[in-house]
Design a protein that fits this description.
The protein has 70 residues and is an alpha+beta fold. It has one helix at residues 28-45, and strands at 2-7, 53-58. The chain has a two-stranded parallel ribbon.
């Protein structure tokens, strides 16, 4: 099975306001780090769910995050 994960920050647990998804806001760092933890968890669990190939993309804004998901 091939799995494609496009991960954005919107809709994450704990987010309440649009401003929390903007990099220029002070609270963004907290939610950005949580997003990364959740994304890594999903990638690490993918093989156990049957994924043989995994492709990940940052789906936030213009997808400027160049860090690998796992």
């Amino acid at each position: 099975m091939k799995l494609f994960i496009s991960a954005g920050i919107e809709g994450r647990a704990g987010l309440n306001f649009t401003e929390e998804t903007h990099k220029n806001e002070g609270v963004y760092q907290k939610y950005g780090e949580e997003k990364t933890r959740e994304d890594v968890f999903g990638c690490e669990a993918a093989p156990a769910a049957g994924a043989e190939t995994l492709v990940g993309k940052d789906g936030h804004g213009g997808a400027p995050n160049k860090k690998p998901l796992a």
